Amino acid sequence: MIHNFRAETRVTLPRNRVFDFFSDPANLEIITPPELRFRILTPSPIVMRAGLHIDYKLMLMGVGFEWETLISEWDPPFRFVD
Asked: What is the pLDDT of residues 15-63, one digit of tens each?
């Protein structure tokens, strides 16, 4: 059985303001529930650009996870792909 989840949120703020928030890796720590112990391992400041690798760590049900994100596209203030 395949389950699909789709969600959409409309934000009525200027594009630059929304882009600045979601393109700042530090904001992931702010919006992630504290019980997940989400942390960015890459030293600050992080200067966003195509080709950037960012390392993270979190806990889920007592199991630690680490992963690396690649910013593959960077086109402010329109889009970025990680």
From this structure: 999 999 989 999 998 999 999 999 999 999 999 999 999 999 999 999 9
Q: pLDDT tens, 4-28?
A: 888 888 889 999 999 999 899 999 9
Largest Cα span, the chain: 44
HEC string of the chain equals: CCCCCCCCCCCCCCHHHHHHHHCCCHHHHHHCCHHHCCEECCCCCCCCCCCCEEEEEEEECCEEEEEEEECCEEECCCEEEC
